[in-house]
Amino acid sequence: MAINEEQVKHVAKLAKLSFSDDELTGFTDQLGKIIDMVEQLGEVDTEGVPFTSNVLETINVMREDVATEGWSRDELMKNVPESEDGFIKVPAIIDNGEAGA
């Protein structure tokens, strides 16, 4: 699947990134190569190959997930620059389904 500069510009806009013309050309080429490699992997015959989720025999070494009492909302909200109805108020990043400029 070929990718063009307009598609790269669209993804960059969604990610709030901006590129020079040279960078745009380079990223278009790199993303095209990545997509080609992924498509090539899709052509590999994996019939009869067992599913592998982890190549190492490991056990969960993390602590048990236990609920504990948290901080009080009032204490946490002391460091918040702006709040509304008990929630942290932040600037909008999506407007009408599009990423902001």
UniProtKB/TrEMBL annotation:
Q: Which Pfam families match?
A: GatC (PF02686)
Q: Does the keyword ATP-binding apply?
A: yes
Q: What is its EC number?
A: 6.3.5.-
Keyword ATP-binding set for record: yes
Give GO BP annotations, semicolon-separated. glutaminyl-tRNAGln biosynthesis via transamidation; regulation of translational fidelity; translation
Entry-linked Gene3D superfamilies: Glu-tRNAGln amidotransferase C subunit, N-terminal domain
Keywords recorded for this protein, A-Z: ATP-binding, Ligase, Nucleotide-binding, Protein biosynthesis, Transferase
Q: Which domain of life is it from?
A: Bacteria
Summary of subunit composition and partner proteins: Heterotrimer of A, B and C subunits.
What this chain does, per the entry, is described as:
Allows the formation of correctly charged Asn-tRNA(Asn) or Gln-tRNA(Gln) through the transamidation of misacylated Asp-tRNA(Asn) or Glu-tRNA(Gln) in organisms which lack either or both of asparaginyl-tRNA or glutaminyl-tRNA synthetases. The reaction takes place in the presence of glutamine and ATP through an activated phospho-Asp-tRNA(Asn) or phospho-Glu-tRNA(Gln).
Record's family? Answer: Belongs to the GatC family.
User: What is the name attached to this protein's record?
Assistant: Aspartyl/glutamyl-tRNA(Asn/Gln) amidotransferase subunit C
